[in-house]
């Protein structure tokens, strides 16, 4: 663990993507854990009408639009499963299948 991130974002659903976009805009050093498929529930949805800005769209269509936004902002997803999070007082240790990470805050 040579590096401590400002933020560790866990989960690549809509909340995680929103957190990553905000962290990027605010120039925070962050790591974003999730799946490149983003939300498996989202891509399985036939029709979605309850996401602001998207209406009468399939989950795949919404996922594709969100992916374009993530690509435009150059946000990378770390495909690794988080197993546990340990509070160390003023920072956190995130234990994953691939190793240990440190972050000042966790979302």
UniProtKB/TrEMBL annotation:
GO molecular function, one term: oxidoreductase activity
Keyword Oxidoreductase: yes
Domain FAD-dependent oxidoreductase 2 FAD-binding as annotated: residue spans: 6-31
InterPro entries listed in its UniProt record: FAD-dep_OxRdtase_2_FAD-bd (IPR003953), FAD/NAD-bd_sf (IPR036188), Ferredoxin-NADP_redctase_2 (IPR050097)
Keywords: Flavoprotein, Oxidoreductase
UniProt cross-references to SUPFAM superfamilies, sorted A to Z: FAD/NAD(P)-binding domain
PANTHER family (alphabetical): THIOREDOXIN REDUCTASE 1-RELATED-RELATED
The protein, known as: FAD-dependent oxidoreductase 2 FAD-binding domain-containing protein
Source lineage: unclassified sequences, metagenomes, organismal metagenomes
């Amino acid at each position: 663990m040579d590096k401590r991130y400002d933020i560790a974002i866990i989960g690549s659903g809509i909340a995680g993507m929103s957190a990553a976009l905000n962290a990027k805009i605010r120039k925070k050093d962050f790591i974003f854990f999730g799946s490149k498929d983003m939300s498996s529930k989202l891509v399985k949805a036939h029709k979605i009408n309850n996401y602001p800005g998207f209406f009468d769209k399939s989950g795949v269509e919404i996922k594709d639009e969100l992916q374009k936004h993530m690509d435009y902002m150059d946000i990378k997803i770390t495909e690794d499963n988080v197993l546990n999070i340990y509070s160390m007082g003023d920072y956190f240790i995130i234990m994953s299948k691939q190793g240990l990470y440190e972050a000042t805050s966790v979302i």
